[in-house]
Every structure is written in structure tokens, then in C-alpha cells.
Amino acid sequence: MFTGIIEEMGIIQEIKRTGDSFILTIGADKIMDDIHLGDSIAINGVCLTVTSYTNNQFSVDVMPETVKATSLVALTRGSKVNLERAMAAGGRFGGHFVSGHVDGTGTIITKKKVENAVYYEIETDKEMLKYIILRGSVAVDGTSLTVFGVSENGFTLSIIPHTLSETVLGLKSKGDIVNIECDMLGKYVSHFLVNATVNSAKKSLGITEAFLEENGFK
């Protein structure tokens, strides 16, 4: 579990490709103070497992399904990535619940500076948009953000200078692909409501006169 508060930006040192999967080796500083084999690290919002590490870098395996569902395939040597360790039980919770299980990707279609903020309009598919609400939370490349506007094809973010300087979002431009994780609580509520509606509809059918006639009871 993560919070969407990025700890630092790491740098891709090496990419070893093996068919549809690959191994990433990432240079980092701050998060190396407390890292262990098997730890979960969110890399641009994607929860991955530490398989090896040294004093200044660590490696993770990226499976074919993760390659297909996220923007990690676009990384190259030298790319900067957002890094966040799994949340500590006793720490402050400054963002929102982020699982690191990316729902899909979106495309930046506009980037516009407005006074001290920068507006990003991100286009994504309608399946994800049903979980994105005005002033709700969304994780973009692992960064916890508040939705500023919602349209038929996407949503808008208003990002402050600190976030732009401390995360890879400041390096992104029109046309770039970003990872999106919708609000976990919203997804669960939607799932429960849909199931409750379906189950209620089934129960309402019950044993009717028509049902009895169709099954030989006249």
C-alpha cells in the first residue's frame, strides 16, 4: 500500500529485455537507506518487487502483463521515474490510498501554465472515467492528485510548482503517456453497489405464476 507522496526521482540505469518482459535497474538515493529484498516499491505508480540491490541502485522484474498495462515499456536508459516505498504503519498519511495496481494509461493532450500552477488535461478511456470524479483523488504516475475537471474523454489536473519539481510530471509534455490508478475506495463502492443491484434484481424475480407455468405447474 502506498500514499501517492513521491519520495524521490530515480534514474533508469539499465534495462534487460527478455522477450515480453524485462528487468529494470534503477539508481536512487533516499529510498536506499531502508531497502530489503522483497520490498514493494512503486515505480511511476506501478508496484514492483525488489529482487536485488546495492548501495545506490536496485532491480525489479517487470512481467509481460505489466508491460502491456502500463507506460513502463516507454522507459529508456536515463529516464527519470517516481519512487515511493510502501507506506509505514506509523507514518503520516499525506495522500490517499494507492495500491500500485495501475488501472491503465492516459495521454496528456494539453499542458498549460496558469499563474503559479500548470493545468494538465489527460485523455483516457471511459471505463476508467466512471471512477474519476470532480475533486476526487487519482494517482498519475504514482502521484496523489486532486481532479480539477472532468469531461467526456478525460480529466484535468492543476499541479503546483513543488509537485512539478519533485516528480516526473514536471518533465512530461503533450503526447506523453502516464499511468493512472483510480481511487481505490470509489472502485470498491462501485463494485459493491453493482453486485447489490444485480442480486436485488435476481431476488425480486422470485417464484412467480409465470415461472410455475413454464415449469409444468398449472
From TrEMBL:
The UniProt keywords, alphabetically, are: Repeat, Riboflavin biosynthesis, Transferase
What GO MF terms are annotated? Answer: riboflavin synthase activity
Q: Per the record's keyword annotation, is Repeat included, yes or no?
A: yes
The ranges of the Lumazine-binding repeats are 1-96, 97-193
| Superkingdom of the organism of origin | Bacteria
**Organism encoding this protein:** Heyndrickxia shackletonii
Q: Which reaction does it catalyse?
A: 2 6,7-dimethyl-8-(1-D-ribityl)lumazine + H(+) = 5-amino-6-(D-ribitylamino)uracil + riboflavin
Q: What is its EC number?
A: 2.5.1.9
The name under which this protein is listed is Riboflavin synthase
Question: Which PANTHER family did the record assign?
Answer: RIBOFLAVIN SYNTHASE (PTHR21098:SF12), RIBOFLAVIN SYNTHASE ALPHA CHAIN (PTHR21098)
Q: In which pathway does it act?
A: Cofactor biosynthesis; riboflavin biosynthesis; riboflavin from 2-hydroxy-3-oxobutyl phosphate and 5-amino-6-(D-ribitylamino)uracil: step 2/2
Name a Pfam family for this protein. Answer: Lum_binding
